[in-house]
Amino acid sequence: MKKSFLFIFILIFSINPVLSFEYGYTNEGFKYVKHEHNEASYQHAWCNAKNGVEEYQNKDYTRVDCLTDTHAVEFDFANKWAESIGQALHYQYMTGKKAKVVLILENPKPEMIYFNRVKNLSEIYDFDVEYVTPKILCIKDGKCSYADCKCNRQKKKYQGK
User: Fold this and answer.
1) 22 within a domain of the structure (yes/no)
2) pLDDT at 37
3) Is position 44 within any domain?
4) HSE value, Cβ hemisphere, 13 Å, CA-based, for 142
5) What span, in angstroms and rounded, lies between the C-alpha atoms of 95 and 98?
6) How many domains, in total, are found in the chain?
7) Distance (Å, whole) CA 113 – CA 143
8) Which of 22, 79, 80, 132 is the most exposed place for a label (fewest CB within 10 A)?
9) pLDDT tens across 90-123, in order?
10) What is the pLDDT of residues 47-64, one digit of tens each?
11) Distance CA 33, CA 31 (A)
């Protein structure tokens, strides 16, 4: 009895994990997921380490996040796992280099489910996948070393009357 209860519990939470993305809303009312660091900061750190070209422009004016000698790489946060695959495959088509998705896992333990989804599809559709965490940003005192990252912007003070 205990084993079957444990199995059902694991099954339920592996299919439908409890993830708490923090959401914000634009002035127009659109919902978005808040992130502490910009996608571009992760992209810059990874692409620099691989000697890649950031924001490579294709003939159709789409931009590859990082073009290396072997890969056309798309970066995205875990909550955007599905669209990262489509973009990476398009970049493969445009560049002739193998598609790669680098998924950004801000909270690796609960977000690993998204990486596993992409990994499973990568085996079927023959593209590469890996993930990065905030560790790649070398964060000190809550800030990364990339000046353009939102973690380095000063927050506006309320000017109420």
Assistant:
1) no
2) 79
3) yes
4) 7
5) 8
6) 1
7) 27
8) 22
9) 999 999 999 999 999 999 999 999 999 999 999 9
10) 999 999 999 999 999 999
11) 7
Q: What angle do CA 10, 81, 135 make, to 5 degrees?
A: 85
Give the pLDDT confidence score for residue 1 in this predicted structure. Answer: 53
Q: How far is CA 55 from CA 40, 62, 91, in A?
A: 10, 9, 11
The reply to whether 78 falls in a domain is: yes
In a domain, 134, yes or no: yes
Range of the domain at 41: 36-152
Secondary structure (3-state) at 100: strand
* Secondary structure class of 74 (helix, strand, coil): strand
For 16-41, what is each residue's pLDDT tens digit?
444 567 777 878 887 667 777 788 98
Is there a contact between 77 and 50 (Cβ–Cβ < 8 Å)?
no
For the stretch 119-139, pLDDT in tens is 999 999 999 999 999 888 877
Both tokens assigned to 7: 């199995």
| Alpha-carbon distances, residue 62 vs 14, 58, 84, 133 (angstroms) | 35, 5, 14, 26
Q: Tokens in use for 141?
A: 């005192």
